[in-house]
Amino acid sequence: MEGTYGSLLARMHGFAGRTELYDDRIRMVRDGVAAAMAEVLGTFRAEAETVVRLDQLSAFEIYRPMFLPPLLVLHYAGSLPLSGHYWRDAFAENVHMCGFFDQRDVEHFAGVLEGAMRALPGTAGPQAAGSAAAPDAE
User: Fold this and answer.
1) How far apart are CA 138 and CA 64, in angstroms?
2) Contact call for residues 26 and 12 (beta carbons, < 8 A)
3) How far from the centroid of its chain's Cα atoms is residue 40's Cα?
4) Contact in structure between 9 and 22 (CB atoms under 8 Å)
5) 14-22-114 Cα angle (round to 5)
6) What is the mean pLDDT of residues 50-71?
7) Average of pLDDT values for 96-124?
8) Nearest CA-CA partner of 62 in 8, 99, 115, 98
């Protein structure tokens, strides 16, 4: 699928919105139920959209709490580390909150993202603790 950002490689939908992987960038759009509730309640400021070029991405991880949806966390220069507060972290500019029940799209997205990062010229690939290559690592 071709669009404004080029060829779409993968897309996943979550409780707070959607994340799209293109040839050269990742786009996170917070238009989901959780983002709308946070805006209405005024509890957290949900970043509307984040775009990160793949060549700026140094790593990613999937944070899996016991009862809440997993978080896909992108690490790049200037990105904030997780604070330990789930809801604050879920609405950070470099985080995608996944869905509650079915995480198959997250696993697929992580695999495609890892492949895209490995394919970048001059890189050794992602340094991902929770990537598809090492799903049991914390």
Assistant:
1) 8
2) no
3) 23
4) yes
5) 75
6) 91
7) 85
8) 98
